């Protein structure tokens, strides 16, 4: 009788994956990132263990969007005080803080627990093609 193996934290080997966002569709890129962060691409995937890899996204501002999303899609923030709702369009978010945009999108696809918060910390987003993680041995996708 075969027994299903569950991954232990001490047995997990984490890799560094570099994804180039240039001319890729935003949503498809984000689903790929969420899958890698979660560890679902590995044969040792266990739902209650963080067995995902580190992800570095370069050229974050050069991603593609379909339709009129750049002008029409809005992101809202609220401080908790009356009348403090503020909104930014997708284009403003992409120009000003693409890191925040990517984190918001990926966070929605991860578990809403301590495990999900640990996974999102392994995401690194950079506007240009340079990143400071050259010391780590990375895989390009």
Automatic annotation (TrEMBL):
Keywords: Ribonucleoprotein, Ribosomal protein. The keyword Ribosomal protein applies. GO terms for cellular component: cytosolic large ribosomal subunit. It comes from the Bacteria. InterPro entries: Ribosomal_uL13, Ribosomal_uL13_bac-type, Ribosomal_uL13_CS, Ribosomal_uL13_sf. GO terms for biological process: negative regulation of translation; translation. SUPFAM superfamilies: Ribosomal protein L13. The keyword Ribosomal protein applies. GO terms for molecular function: mRNA binding; structural constituent of ribosome. It holds the Pfam family Ribosomal_L13. Part of the 50S ribosomal subunit. Belongs to the universal ribosomal protein uL13 family. This protein is one of the early assembly proteins of the 50S ribosomal subunit, although it is not seen to bind rRNA by itself. It is important during the early stages of 50S assembly. HAMAP family: Ribosomal_uL13. This is Large ribosomal subunit protein uL13. It comes from Helicobacter cappadocius. The lineage of its organism: Bacteria, Pseudomonadati, Campylobacterota, Epsilonproteobacteria, Campylobacterales. The gene is rplM.
């Amino acid at each position: 009788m075969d027994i299903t193996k569950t991954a232990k934290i001490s047995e997990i080997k984490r890799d560094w994956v570099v994804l180039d966002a240039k001319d890729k569709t935003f949503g498809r890129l984000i689903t790929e990132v969420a899958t890698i962060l979660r560890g679902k691409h590995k044969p040792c995937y266990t739902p209650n263990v963080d067995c995902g890899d580190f992800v570095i996204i370069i050229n974050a501002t050069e991603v593609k969007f379909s339709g009129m999303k750049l002008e029409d899609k809005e992101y809202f923030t609220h401080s908790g005080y009356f009348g403090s709702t503020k909104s930014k369009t997708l284009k403003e978010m992409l120009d000003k803080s693409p890191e925040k945009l990517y984190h918001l999108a990926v966070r929605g696809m991860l578990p809403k627990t301590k495990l999900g918060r640990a996974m999102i910390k392994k995401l690194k987003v950079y506007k240009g093609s340079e990143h400071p993680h050259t010391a780590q041995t990375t895989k390009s996708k």
